[in-house]
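Hello,

I think I submitted the flavin-adenine dinucleotide job twice by accident. Can you confirm which output corresponds to this input? Input:
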Amino acid sequence: MAEKIARQRKPEQAPQVRRTNFLEVAGNYSPEQARLEAGRCLQCKNPACVSGCPVGVQIPQFIQQIKDGAFARAYEIIRADNYLPAVCGRVCPQETQCEGRCVLGKKGEPVAIGNLERFAADWAAVNTAAETREFAFPRASRAQSAAKIAVVGSGPSGLTCAAELNAAGFDVTVFEALHELGGVLAYGIPEFRLPKEIVRREIENLSAAGVRFETNAVIGKIRTIDELLQDFAAVYIASGAGFPSFMNITGEDLNGVYSANEYLTRLNLMKAYQSGADTPVLKGQNVAVIGGGNVALDAARSALRLGATQVYLIYRRSRAEMPARREEIQHAEEEGLKFLFLHNPVQYLGDEKGFVQKALLQKMTLGEPDASGRRRPVPETGSEYELAVDTVIVAVGTQANPILKDTTPDLPTDKRGYIIIDENGRTAKKSVWAGGDIASGAATVILAMGSGKRAAKSIGKYVRSA
Ligand code: FAD
Ligand code: SF4
Ligand code: SF4
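Support: Only one job matched these inputs. Its output is below.
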């Protein structure tokens, strides 16, 4: 019986070893393991797993190919719906998406769809010709007169939209504010979860396929959207939601208090973990990270790797409500992160030089469910106590950066600053589309990619008929 085969585990660095380095935590399946895992799939006639995937990857079909040892074909099937399987196999929250719907999960462990997707992508990267991989579409036979389209932001949404439009024969330029391409894949998710080599490989493929990239190009500063529209037939805005939120409590302005965004950017893009880096980061011994999502865990596990003695993850709800990927929570626990559930900071206290010294924490209990459906944390009066810390990293969410809204007065946004779009990603401003986190609010890589794909179809139709 297929169900008798146990779910295959990826090889992993031992927790005590990996907490001292930034190398990827988990390795890949061997071909034998991949085929065994693929053999667990029941090849359901109405596969529930597919309905859990935001881009509808043909899951049983690619798994069957892996089972048969046809790894290149498995990869082609995935890539027809998902341009970044090496990324998604690693970072999709599978437990709430594809694997969360797998029938095997009802009585045991679901098929490891994410691991199999990663296996196929990593196998293809080594064993197939570059032009058949990921973003490497056959070079579009682009006419001299091909319409020009601008994409603002090089995260997963912008890259996907650019890839689709390039493949359709348009002349695409991606404008990126930072000096490195990839959005959160480059500046946010750390190397130990997503090696930057993978992101660079995809971007090189895309560039080789004809997409132009301009880095250090902050749209809204160097050129406005209206100025872009003088040269481009359409604009796709995929500028993400990378503007950090704080809790607005006393002491957040002390030295040693960072937003997770700043902390991770210094680490990932500016190599703050290397000695002699231009933009160093404080290597705290007692670090408090506030939040319970992937961002909080990435910051906390990075602090551990920088040599902290104790890293506290302070989360105002309980473990059951943590929005982070389950695998990351488990990895973080194994690495020795100390979880303080049902806790919230109410103030930070500093020394005479203005450096953070203590966090004043308050205990919480869970009340009735709130609008998100999760039980509301309620403060326990009189429960405050002090925790000695020398670094605090705030990871309580992000918002839309106001720069494009402020420089494009007729671009409709909601009250939180997110761009309002229709089901095809189109805004009410002529020739302007938007998608990814700047329209949805902070979400996931695969949702951002899905919206880039939908918008590309709509833009292509519009530009051709104009
Ligand atoms: P982004 O990836 O944010 O890219 C936007 C790009 O636009 C950036 O490069 C930015 O510099 C650029 N930009 C902004 N303004 C301008 C401008 N004015 N001009 C030019 N360029 C501009 N999701 C998962 O599915 N799984 C995970 O495990 C996961 N972990 C995460 C960990 C961290 C630390 C973070 C921060 C997020 C994580 N996410 C995860 C969420 C996911 O990364 C995002 O939902 C996704 O990257 C959104 O894609 P995007 O293309 O819309 O925006
Ligand atoms: Fe699952 Fe993500 Fe792959 Fe879809 S893209 S099948 S959600 S891992
Ligand atoms: Fe295979 Fe599970 Fe999908 Fe069924 S639901 S096809 S068992 S992965």
